[in-house]
Amino acid sequence: MGSGTWILALLVLQSVFDGIYGLEQEVNRRTERISGSAGDVLEDDPVGRLKVFVYELPSKYNKKILHKDPRCLNHMFAAEIYMHRFLLSSPVRTLNPEEADWFYAPVYTTCDLTPSGLPLPFKSPRMMRSAIELISTNWPYWNRTEGADHFFVVPHDFGACFHYQEETAIERGILHLLKRATLVQTFGQRNHVCLKDGSITIPPYAPPQKMQTHLIPPDTPRSIFVYFRGLFYDVGNDPEGGYYARGARASVWENFKNNPLFDISTDHPTTYYEDMQRAVFCLCPLGWAPWSPRLVEAVVFGCIPVVIADDIVLPFADAIPWEEIGVFVAEEDVPKLDTILTSIPIEVILRKQRLLANPSMKQAMLFPQPAQPGDAFHQILNGLARKLPHDEGVFLKPGQKILNWTAGPVGDLKPW
Amino acid sequence: MKQSAGQHPNRRPYSAAVPEEAAALRPPSFLFWSAVHVLCCLVSAALGFRFSRLLFLLLFSPASHHHNHHHHVHLLRQPPAAVIPFPPPPRPDLPPPPPPPTVAGRVGVGRHGIRVRPWPRPDPAEVARAHEILVRLQQEQRLRYGVKDPRPVIVVTPTYARTFQALHLTGLLHSLMLVPYPLTWLVVEAGGVSNETAALLAHSSLPVVHLPFHEDMPVLWNDRHRFEARMRLRALRVIRERRLDGIVVFADDSNVHTMELFDEIQKVQWMGALSVGILAHSAAPDATAKRQQRASEQETSPLPIQGPACNSSGQLIGWHTFNYLPYAKKAATFVGDGVTVLPTKLEWAGFVLNSRLLWKEAEGKPNWARDLDEVGISGEEIESPLDLLKDASFVEPLGNCGKKVLLWWLRAEARYDSKFPSRWVIDPPLEIVVPAKRTPWPDAPPDLPYQRIANEGGHVEKHVSKKVRSYRSKRSSRNKKKHETHVDTQVSEMSSAQEK
User: What is the DSSP secondary structure assignment for residue B216, as one 8-state letter?
Assistant: First the structure.
């Protein structure tokens, strides 16, 4: 009888533990922690890990430009303005430049807008150069490192190449004076002139309130398989196709316009955000530049992003394991997109949805006002903190000069 | 060159860019090359195609490795042999770069082909797989966000065999097949269990309890509403006897139900009330009725709704019922009348109950519910489920306190003189067949005297069998007696119309 009761007790204990384990599994089934190549760093708190000094530039570099055109606060390049505002009131800001690890110069280079709202980058190199000249003459911190412990936010199409057209951007290359600085930019493509090592890739700005107001109940069944709204051919600038998006968007249209699983069109529905929440996959193909706000929208609305952009570098790539969250399709595989998407195992899709449901993932893509823990501002600071401590090459030896102040196209040398 | 508005701004026209940049750099060569550019544009305009491409093809050898890529895929547009970045005038000191450009790696700038596979049609196997994926994902969504511990649903439907039964019952059947919860369907049929209804119900895989109700459905709408209430009581008694567990929904076969309804009713504790949209349609073909209806619709709200009324804190304070005034003269009185069918003040469809409310003994059963055995006896008329309760204030308002309309009430029956669809067979043939007034058959005399029909109507009542179809002639002859004048005027209109 004794052994019988022991066995019974063991069985009871085992079932209890199984129950607890099952509960844990249940909780884990809901969301999964996101950890990228740098580890589980999405929820790190940058306060106390770095100090940032914000240069007080004359308002012609920032406030006056914004005052001239307040539309800059709403377009997808608004991150530069919001980053400045965030840093001014953040606990990582220090007023003592001697103890600063990083230096920030607020120059709004993407705020010269056409009447229809598109930024013109033609004056941006001169503006940036003029700001750097100002910094280097009025403070000693630029010259002692030639900018290696400075960072700049350059959210335009091709970053610090300051042009919207890829060939011209490649020809120009990154502004020479920014050669040693850290660039915080939205553009990211491997083996590309306009992405230098050590840059921090950020998501484009998407208005968080606007997205919040369009949320629908999460139990609304996802019944659209693939969703996309946008251009396939840019008839204004590339009427025959082949240049825009390297022909990938046109290929999507030609192959899948008759496919019932693909809800793709050039419409502008008012229910765009609601439709994304009813879709399983959202296409995020490249346009004139490889990045797009669609990625942010897809992540916020829980739709698995299908990224069609070869060699793209996605935001915060060291903190977020994009391979596990999104689906990457090579541009040459676009004709087989339906086969690729329908042959993903269901467990993998469920896991991707679980990762996307993690609130820290959504928070990391947004620039809310006021800033919240875990949002894109904090991810940028975390990225900067991970680059500390600065290595030996940052501080120049006395008399050492690396930058050539007259390099670059002649037009850039004119004063701004 | 305008860019379209949208999520992603297009690029600006090149013409804005190039002169600004180039002008800053080299004035004399710029002038030369812009002159060449203008000349080329004029020549192209004259020829009708961009001959500069032809020129580049002849002058520069093709070094593109894009061709190798694309051989196995049909190209919608052929890339030019020399893939030159388009279209600024080439600067003299810079030789036109052959692709790939200066960056290493396989992604190149410049013109790419648009890859289209030879047969861009959906593969049915893939579409089926995609639907399987969607089903599984929706199941997972329901597990995550939907109702926890869903209770089974018991659906009560009164029905009888008639022209539109197949239409209504099949619609309801398909709706119920989509409900993701375990479901029991109690179908109460007036006139006993018939083969037609059984055949329709056999199309589903739902557990159906087919209950006979051994009285015939009356003809007048008021009688029919009360009759249906008695049929539903019969079903409730069966639920009580068998102690079926779940949430009772009164789904009439002609109503339209949304799937959210079945999710919403899971919230009910004991008895809940929903908002029902009333589709009181008018089938009258004459224009005057339509005009009147449109005018009346503009005055009142666009859609009448029956349901609970709440105060601002979400508590039930009363009921929205149907407003009969606009329809005072135009209500249908008998089934098959061609005018608007009106609902009762509070339709059964707008209420749901926990089946334990009906049981003799159930734990937690509230005392504000009457015992089912006492309801309906000694000729008591049950008009709405509120008669099952002692106190109606305990009813829970569902659907965001009645603001969300989750089902639609509709009564649409075939007109009394409508023809059967052509492939229907009446077997065995009826003893007496009277041609319909509205659709005169080609070989029948145009006008039958009313006296003869009235006499024959008497005969028909005696000989008629229980078959449904003979029911029609009985009904039509009886109705002709009642509405002689009405039909007369219609017929004279029809004949005058025909003469034209």
Answer: P
How many H-runs (helices) and E-runs (strands) does chain A carry? 15, 10
| pLDDT of A65 over the 70 cut | yes
Taking the Cβ of residue A19 and every Cβ of chain B, the question of whether any pair is shorter than 8 Å is answered with no
Nearest residue on chain A to B129, judged by CA atoms? A342
* Contact residues, chain B, for A243 at CB < 8 Å: 86, 110-112
Kind of pairing between the strands at B316-320 and B256-257: unpaired
What residue of A is the nearest CA neighbor of B69? A332
Burial class (CB in 10 A: 0-12, 13-18, 19+), B335: buried
**Within 10 Å of residue B466's Cβ, how many Cβ atoms?**
10
Model ipTM?
0.85
- pTM exceeding 0.80: no
Pick left, alpha or beta for residue A7 (phi over 0 → left; psi -120 to 50 → alpha; otherwise beta). Answer: alpha
The residue among A262, A300, A271, A346 whose CA lies nearest residue B134 is A346
Give all strands of the β-sheet with A327-328 in edge-to-edge order.
A262-265, A224-229, A279-285, A304-308, A327-328
pLDDT attached to residue B103: 39
Look up tokens 């502004």; give the residue.
Answer: A175
Phi, psi of A201 (to 5 degrees): -90, 130
Nearest CA in chain B to A195: B103
Task: Determine whether the interchain pair A242/B114 forms a contact, defined as Cβ–Cβ distance below 8 Å.
Answer: yes
Q: Do A217 and B14 touch (CB under 8 A)?
A: no
SS3 B118: coil
For chain B, the maximum distance between any two Cα atoms, rounded to a whole number of angstroms, is 112
- Residue A22 CA to chain centroid, in angstroms? 37
Helix (H) and strand (E) counts for chain B? 14, 12
Instruction: Tell me the per-residue pLDDT of A98-141, one tens digit each, with 9 for 90 and over.
Output: 999 999 999 999 999 999 888 999 999 999 999 999 999 999 99
DSSP letter for A13, please.
H
Report CA-CA distances (Å) from B198 to B162, B193, B298.
Answer: 13, 7, 44
Which segments of B243-333 does DSSP mark as H helices, in order?
A: 259-264, 287-299
| Interface test with chain A among B114, B126, B129, by most A beta carbons within 10 Å | B114
Instruction: Give the mean pLDDT of A40-69.
Output: 91
Tell which wins on pLDDT, B242 or B448: B242
Rounded to 5 degrees, what are φ and ψ at B481?
-60, -40
Q: CA B163, CA B260: separation in Å to the nearest integer?
A: 30
Per-residue burial over B416-443, b = 16 or more CB atoms within 10 Å of its CB, e = otherwise: bbbeeeeeeeeeeebeeebbbbeebeee
Q: Distance between CA atoms of A266 and B373, rounded to whole angstroms? A: 63
Q: How far apart are CA A392 and CA A106, in angstroms?
A: 26
Beta strands in B131-253 (DSSP E): 153-159, 183-190, 208-213, 247-250
DSSP 8-state symbol, A333:
G
- Closest B-chain CA to A412: B24
Asked if B358 and B370 touch (Cβ cutoff 8 Å), the reply is no
The model's pLDDT over A255-306, given as tens digits with 9 standing for 90+, comes to 999 999 999 999 999 999 999 999 999 999 999 989 999 999 999 999 999 9
* Paired sense of beta strands B153-159 and B183-190, if any: parallel
- State the Cα–Cα distance between residues A105 and A100, nearest whole angstrom: 13
Q: Could you tell me if A176 and A102 are in contact, meaning their C-beta atoms sit under 8 angstroms apart?
A: no
Residue with tokens 């019932």: A260
Task: Determine contact: A210 vs chain B, CB below 8 A.
Answer: no
Check if the beta carbon of residue B359 is closer than 8 Å to that of residue B243.
yes
Q: In the 8-state DSSP scheme, what is residue A409?
A: -
At A68, is the secondary structure helix, strand, or coil?
A: helix
- Chain A residues with CB inside 8 Å of B13's CB? 236-237
Dihedral in degrees, nearest 10, Cα atoms A369, A370, A374, A375: 20
Which of A116, A161, A190, A296 is most worth mutating to test chain B (most B CB atoms within 10 A of its CB)? A116
